[in-house]
Amino acid sequence: MLTVTELARKCEISRTAVLYYEKVGLLMPSCRSDNGYRWYSEKEVNRLKSILAYRAFGMSISDIATLVSSESEQEQGALLKSQFHTLAREIQTLKKQQQAIVVMLQEPDLLEEKVVSKSRWVEIMTSLGFSENDMIEWHRNFERMKPEQHKAFLESLGISSTEINAIRARK
What is the pTM of this model? Predict the structure, then answer.
């Protein structure tokens, strides 16, 4: 069992954040001691990790509440897909803003710069909890579902054609 401070340290967030998640009803302690201390079990640790992952996806508190309390995979999938599409629209808006800046500056070369490199992408995936095998599986699925978009994505990371071919050939 962990105290609020120990839980916060374990999950690398502030004590205040843990208390906030309790206040909004996302995370409740397993029990309270006679002196009022909150105690959290492994179940709450895992729940907090899920909450933090969903926050990293940009999910709202109300959507996170639904995600962590729902046992319906369909409902969870629908919420995550909705967030995915929201992010896609935001990305398109940001790209249009970038293009407007390029036009204003009259510097088309700015669009050629790599926004995310291979190492940064691996860093992002690792921070989301992906293992090496998870990343390989992610690439397999992307290649199977959208081969041309997968190739374009790999090129956008600045990966050599030899390495792209090796990644795409993994079965």
Answer: 0.61
